[in-house]
Design a protein that fits this description.
The protein is an alpha/beta fold and 444 residues long. It has two domains: 68-245 and 354-435, Alpha/Beta hydrolase fold, catalytic domain (Rossmann fold), CATH 3.40.50.1820; 252-348, Rna Polymerase Sigma Factor, Chain: A. It contains 14 helices and 13 strands. The chain has helices at residues 21-35, 55-69, 191-204, 218-229, 248-262, 279-293, 296-303, 322-335, 340-352, 355-359, 362-367, 386-398, 416-419, 421-435, and strands at 10-12, 76-80, 84-85, 91-92, 95-102, 112-116, 155-159, 174-175, 180-181, 212-216, 236-240, 372-378, 403-408. The protein has a nine-stranded mixed beta sheet, sandwiched between helices. A hairpin with a 4-residue loop joins β8 and β9 (180-181). α5 packs antiparallel against α6, α5 (248-262) runs antiparallel to α9 and α6 crosses α8 (322-335). The longest helix has 15 residues, at 21-35. The chain is globular and about 65 Å long. The two termini are 12 Å apart.
């Protein structure tokens, strides 16, 4: 089967009609308008300030009341003493995985979807842990009743990857051999190791086959690993803003971030847990990394050449532009929630990601899969550009695997899959609907 590149549109294979993404969005909106169904909750009535109480305070109180009356989510953990074999030849034990679930597993146990987070994400994909939380989970707009990952229909699982610092075993965890944090003694891990740990979780939950795996960026790496290494356990794979192989450029960006952290004197060869962490190094790493997640269009639109406090240059070496202040804020806030050693280990795992090298070619890798695929790329993503998704789609077509693809218009850059929910939602919703029919016929 041959294929041609169609920018800003949708390519549907295996006798599925080809329509543009904008046309599909219009049809989706018209359908929901006609049926009265909406994937979003209706806005509340305007809040009228009372005398002596600020409007902002009332808004915050109203939000907390809404959260308090909704279903709060709880982070759960599973622990295994059995060593986890790693690609490096080493073993990891014990292993803790932090995870959250949303919705209910049906009696047939066939409605489970595994959500796979990106580099700095965690198991908290949706909802709130506490009524006082300022923000919900990282994909809250996508997960919930009536949303694309509809908790009235599906059982959603999201776990924190090993190597991270958000509840699962990582460099900041206690090394049983020393009684102290692993630090740089933590074994180097791969995407395959992350998924190997997730398989244990899915087994423990009593799920033989996942309805779908879904993830963007590094989450897409994991989804691809699931679909090829465990083909009989995945019916559908949703890949957003991802790639089958880390390019030399992405390895280079990661190397800059690691060098910034390891050059900070406070890194102490990874043994800083009883001291001040290498905050300056990680802040720089995050500042650089964040620029790869956005686009020049979004930066220009948000900041332009605005100065922070003055109307013009002050002829100093201090940060004067709004964009400088913004990047400093990103670096500082990241230090409050992420461990520098996890930054080192997770970026290295991403560097090693090379699906075609594992099986000899991308075609050989996808020949193993039994899943249907939905691949979404975003026009302004320059970290994992649409050409990377196109490469995945073309390989799937060559081995006659069912695939649906759309390059979606967005100015948000790589982070589009985390913020442009309205653009990707109809594609994901329709794809999941198609997976409710189990009998999938793959061509020879």
């Amino acid at each position: 089967m041959t294929s041609s590149y169609q920018p800003m549109g949708s390519r549907w294979y295996h006798n599925i009609p080809v329509i543009s993404s904008l046309q599909w969005l219009r049809q989706h909106h018209q359908h929901h308008t006609n049926t009265g169904h909406s994937t979003r909750q209706q806005p509340h009535e305007p809040i009228r300030p009372n005398e002596g109480i600020s409007h902002d305070y009332q808004v915050r109180q109203r939000q907390q009341e809404q959260i308090a009356t909704s279903d709060l989510v709880t982070r759960q953990t599973m622990i295994w003493d059995t060593p986890l074999p790693l690609d490096s030849g080493q073993q990891l034990a014990p292993v803790t995985l932090a995870y959250e679930t949303y919705g209910r597993l049906n009696e047939q146990r066939d409605n489970a979807i595994l959500l796979l987070h990106a580099f700095s994400g965690d198991a908290h994909a949706a909802g709130y842990h506490h009524p006082s939380d300022r923000k919900p989970g990282w994909w809250d707009e996508m997960v919930g009743p009536g949303r694309p990952f509809d908790t009235n229909r599906y059982f959603l699982i999201c776990s924190n990857v090993i190597g991270s610092c958000c509840g699962s075993t990582g460099p900041s965890s206690t090394n049983p051999a020393t009684g102290k944090p692993y630090g740089a003694q933590f074994p180097v891990i791969t995407i395959a190791d992350m998924v190997r740990a997730q398989v244990r979780l899915i087994d423990k939950l009593g799920i033989n086959q996942l309805m779908a795996v879904a993830g963007g960026s590094m989450g897409g790496f994991q989804a691809l690993e699931w679909a090829t290494a465990y083909p009989e356990r995945v019916r559908g794979a949703i890949l957003l803003a991802t790639t089958a192989q880390s390019s030399p450029q992405t390895v280079a960006w990661n190397a800059i971030g690691r060098r910034a952290i390891m050059s900070d004197p406070r890194w102490r060869q990874g043994d800083y847990y009883d001291h001040e962490p290498p905050a300056d190094g990680q802040a720089i790493a995050r500042m650089v990394g964040h620029l790869t997640y956005v686009s020049s269009l979004s930066i220009d639109a948000k900041f332009g050449r605005l100065f922070h406090q003055h109307e013009g240059p002050q002829f100093t070496l201090e940060p004067e532009f709004e964009v400088e202040r913004y990047l400093e804020y990103k670096g500082t806030s990241f230090n409050k929630r992420f461990d520098p050693n996890s930054y080192l280990y997770l970026t290295r795992a991403m560097d090693y990601w090379d699906l075609p090298a594992r099986y000899g070619s991308l075609d050989a890798a996808f020949s193993r899969s039994q899943a249907r695929f939905l691949v979404l790329s975003f026009s302004s993503d320059w970290l994992y550009p649409p050409s990377e998704s196109q490469r995945i789609v073309d390989a799937l077509c060559r081995v006659n695997r069912p695939v649906e693809y759309a390059e979606l218009p967005s100015n948000a850059g790589h982070d589009a899959f985390l913020v442009n929910h309205h653009v990707q939602s109809p594609f994901i919703e329709q794809f999941l609907n198609s997976l409710t029919v189990k009998e999938l016929t793959l061509g020879a």
